[in-house]
Specification:
The chain has about 190 residues and is mostly helical. About 80% of the residues lie in helices and about 0% in strands. It contains 9 helices and no strands. Pfam families: LysE.
Amino acid sequence: MNIISFLLYCIVVTCSPGPANIVILSSVQHSGAKKTMRYVYGATMAFGLLLILSTLMNRVLVEVIPNILIIMQVVGSIYMLYLAYKIFKMGAMEDKPNPNANFRSGLLMQLVNPKVLLFTLTVIPSYVMPFYTSSLTLFMFVIIITVIGFFAFTTWVVFGAIFRAFLQNHQKVLNTLMALFLVYSAIMISGIL
């Protein structure tokens, strides 16, 4: 297993913009970092639960339908490229009404977030299951990925609080960088590199 590639993939995907991260950034602008952390805790809880469910489901799928992994990698790569395009085309951050950023909304947002669903369905079978199959090892990787997700969400809180003016003045450059990171993630998940 290439642990550097695995960690880089997890960090890039969890740190790149998505519905939950955009809500976090917006919430920090309107409610402050402390209140936004409630949302982060809910989002992290849902992220971990989805990883556990995905790992259990993938263990069954890999045993029943061995080629499902290839299909999931292709679909995941296409979705990542779509997200990269949307982020690249995204306009400047605008002040909008405060989203209801609490624990429950963070939990619910992650449970229906297509970026998170796709990530949780592909990360374990793509990077971990080809090398490790024991339940304890898979659970350890779920914990590692959940912690990475928590730090990614928290990073959005910190950056939103500290760099608000900078983010608004350089939105296009940041969108381009995030889009490029997602293209890299799509390439990594497809297995091309």
